[in-house]
Amino acid sequence: MFYHDNGKLQYTVEVEEPNPEFAKMLQQAIGGVEGEMRVALQYLFQAWALPQKHSEYRHALLETAAEELGHIEMLATAVAKNLEGAPVELRNQMGQDSAVSAAMNGMQPRQVLSSGLHAMPVDSNGVPFNGSCIVASGNLAADMYANVMAESTGRLLATRLWEMTEDDGMKDMLSYLIARDTMHQNQWLALLQDLGDPDDMFDHLPVPDSFPDEMEHQEFNYSFMSTDINEPDDPQKPWTQGESMDSEGSFSFIREKDLGKTEPNLQPPNEKAHNEVKEQDDD
Known about the structure:
Layout: H1 20-31, H2 36-48, H3 55-83, H4 88-92, H5 97-106, H6 109-113, H7 140-164, H8 168-195, E1 223-226, E2 242-243, E3 250-255
Parallel strand pairs: 1-3
Antiparallel strand pairs: 2-3
Helix pairs in contact: 1-3, 1-7, 2-3, 2-7, 3-8, 7-8
Region (Disordered): 226-283
Organism: Haladaptatus litoreus
Protein name: Mn-containing catalase
């Protein structure tokens, strides 16, 4: 259950110099794969999948999901404020060529045609948000790794947007979002560590760690495989030698060519599939 504090944003959103083109860029932070819709829904579905014994983790995910919904509201406000700076002819003379030109060259056309100069649940190219980017596997460790990645790419996007604007109000809002991404990366890593041995960050590796070790092929579970046709030597890097990150094995270096090659040995296709090409008679 969610409650909305009507009329109040989580953080101040001010635009000193409205910029329709920047509004288009901000759409990526709303409906893009790095955006706030993605993480808000990701955290919600992860939380809803957790059993009662993980209530503290469920609570943390719900808290942050609701925070991310607030970020969407902030960004939608920022888009609308930037679109308030659309040329006068765009707002008052929608049918004239100059307005159409401004819409096509400076913003998403649908921001005029479909939303009346407001934000939409789309990315910066106008592509509608797609929930296929949401990761909610049901495995808490796997989900935390996905969350760190999501917050990392979200922070990267926010820093790029910060570099794209000279508007002090927009820089301030983005600085806030960047700071929250810093916290969220750290909190998910802390939750990940809390799942296992506090002194061993990777105690839960590999994910899922419930699968019996003896059921995986022991010859290959810690071997870095080179597929380079030039047959390089072991580069002697941390991922090709020494103890594995989960402390359950030792890294090694192998070459794909040394494994031996086998033919696929596929059976002839079912004749009803009509895959065969009819052979021509020589004469």
